[in-house]
Structure formats: C-alpha cells, structure tokens
Amino acid sequence: MTLLAFHSLVVVLGILSMGFQLLASRLLNPHFGSSIIVWAWLISTFLAAFSLGSMLGGWMSAQPRSQRSRWQISAASLAVLTLAFTAFFGRGTLDHIELAFSEPGTGLLVSCFGLFFVPVTMLSSFGPQCVQYLAARGTAPGAASGVIYGISTVGNIAGVMLTAFALIPHFPVSTLLYLWLAVAILSLAGLIAILRTAPEPAAT
What we know:
This protein has helices at about 1-30, 35-60, 65-100, 105-125, 125-135, 140-165, 175-195. The protein is an all-alpha fold. Helix 1 runs antiparallel to helix 2 (about 35-60) and helix 1 packs antiparallel against helix 7 (about 175-195).
C-alpha cells in the first residue's frame, strides 16, 4: 500500500511539473504572446530547473536522516511559497515587469526565472530522493532510477494532456494555479512522510 501511494505521488509530481509549464505559457501570453521565442525561454527555464533540481535532490538524498528531513521540508516549503506567489501575485508581477523593462526579451527572461524557476527546481529535487528511497529498500539503483523517471514521465504526459485538453479550456488560469498549489501542498506532505521511512544511505 505504501509503495502504491509512493508511486502515485511520483506521478502527481510529474503532472504538476509539466502541467505548470502550460499554465505558465497562458500566464505569459497576455504580456509577451506565444511566439517561438516565448516558448524557447519557457522551455529553457523549465529544463534548467529540472537540471538544478536533480543535482540538488541528489545531494539531499545522500545526507544523514535528520539533515535530509530538514532539507526536504525546506524544499517543499519553498516550492509551496513560490507556487503561492505565482498563483496570487503572478499577474500583478507580470504587469510590473512589463512596465519595468522596455526590451521584451529581458522582461520575458525575468518573468520566466522569477515566477517559474524556483518552484520547478524544488519539485524536481524530489526525483533523485525517490530513486534513493527505492534503492534503500533493496531495488537495484539502475532499476530504481528507471522506475522513478519512467512513471514520472508518464505523469509529465498526463499533465500536458490533462491541462491542455481538460483544464485550460474550461477553467480560468488563476483557478488552475490555486488548484496546483493545493495539490502541491498535499502531495509534497505525503511524499515527505513516506521518504522519512527510508533507511540511511549506505556509507561511501
């Protein structure tokens, strides 16, 4: 039962990450449009966040249990706070950025990194920790990595399809951002509770 809940939460994190990219594009659209340049910056921001988050999560997973728990709570709290900022103040922030930067490219860069980079980085940091959780329970590291990133990618696909075809056409972006925030709070709390039961990493 615990493993079923664990794998379900990994899928949910995948949904949150890629679904958030589509919500981000809709948030940016009134200010910067939806050109290939906008998508290039947006995709690059998310890829940079995935990269940094993976490295950060790998470092966290090797820490002693007490420190690991503190870092997990810190990462989850930062993810929630920055998602909340985007949900409640994203549009107002974009209004100010648009006025502050006459060059649209600069404003777009500041918007992408200011509103989306940190929450996606923090969400991504849990991927390697999920791999470590399975490995600590006896799954071979390669198999653990394959399972986590495989089902996370399934979540990514579900997030794109669900957000694009079921949610965005029927709900305001602001409502969906509040939904993303609520789901992130619940899923991160559940995931941290499960990760805390992992054995200590093996000494190197």
